[in-house]
Amino acid sequence: MKRILIFILVTTLLYSCKEEGVFTPKPRMYPRVEFPVKSYNEFDFEACHFTFQKPEYASIKTGITFFGEKAKHPCWFDLEIEKLNTSLHFSYTKIEGENTLEKLVRDAFKIVEEHNAKSEYTEEALIENKNGVKGLMFNLEGPVASPINFFLTDTTSHFVRASLYFNSAVNPDSTKIILDFVSKDVDRILSTFAWKD
Known about the structure:
Elements: H1 2-16, E1 40-43, E2 50-55, E3 59-61, E4 65-66, E5 69-70, E6 77-81, E7 86-94, H2 101-116, E8 121-128, E9 134-141, E10 148-153, E11 158-166, H3 172-192, E12 194-195
Antiparallel strand pairs: 1-2, 2-12, 3-6, 4-5, 6-7, 7-11, 8-9, 9-10, 10-11
């Protein structure tokens, strides 16, 4: 009986001293993103002097406020993609009086510069589509609140500025796939954008 107890004790000690493999932590994971199917319909809002094709899965939010102030024009709105927690903010300004084209372009650059403080790289690209719409696009890389900004104008009467926002903390590693998906929607908006008059 004594021998059996000693054998069990020695066997237990030997197995408990067995060397385990080196522990390596699992890589950080991000939630799986369910992307909607790409489909578009016409954006033709009565208060706006333009049209474009918008994603069907984006809803139009009007009556928005900015930093506690009401919108300066009825054609200020958000295209919100709730499923991806993003929104594309649009603001329209008529070119007249103090709102000269030069001032509006300068203001657009100033807004991009504010976001640029955290960006690692900024790319500017000229916009000109088949409808004669012209403008400039800014792509900002890094942990920025608004990675895509652009403005469009007919240079005489109308000026539109837009910015893409993530409605959560920005981590470029986790938001890149969403940004890539939404960038295609922005490309569609830019290629189909047209002035009404």
